[in-house]
Amino acid sequence: MTLAEGRETAGSGAHAGEWLADTRTSYDTVAGSYADFVRDSLAEEPYLRAVLTLFADLVDAAGGGPVADVGCGPGHVTAHLRGLGVDAFGVDLSPGMVDIARRDHPGVRFEVGSMTDLRLADASVAGVLAFWSLIHIPDDMIPTVFGHFRRVLRPGGPLLIGFHVGDGSRLKSEGYGGHPMRVHVHRRQPDQIVTRLRDAGFTVDAQMVFGLDESRPGAVVTAHHD
Description:
Blueprint: E1 4-6, H1 18-38, H2 46-61, E2 66-70, H3 76-83, E3 87-92, H4 95-104, E4 110-112, E5 127-131, H5 142-152, E6 158-164, E7 169-175, E8 179-186, H6 190-199, E9 203-210, E10 218-224
Parallel strand pairs: 2-3, 2-5, 3-4, 5-6
Antiparallel strand pairs: 1-7, 6-10, 7-8, 9-10
């Protein structure tokens, strides 16, 4: 994988919605190579597999039902959840990613949509997963996204968020086989995510940071609302 990242902050100077269109186009462009890159990635991530198993147990304990993998990409995590017995379906901004997810995982529901305007009914899902998909959402849109997550979740339903740990934003201009991209990658501290979740009305249950000695540590946070 070749990544060319230059420093550029996604701020209020960007036209409203421009970052969303850039993200959609970028992932349409890299959909095939990205799917190849992540297809077997969970096999090398025992902590993430354990977290997903825990999430599946939390969904079951809350009564079970459909679970939304929001920002599902090519659907490899959605499929993993289904292998754990979860009635998971995927939502992604990129039509190209959704096409590949449907191709690679026939019989699983995948649809095009944005977490900034999540077209799911109130209290319609038993769990929400956002696995490294919030990394492209600007800070000022996080309350909107978390508001949608809380709205669509049934009372007691778990939310699992995974993200890059760090500070600031970078503009990623190339990736996944050298294809051109224009996406801002936002790294955040776990306490920032926890505070935002509480502000949105969630009860935070746990957090875990891993890869502390690596260049790009990750974190997961689980929460629910009563």
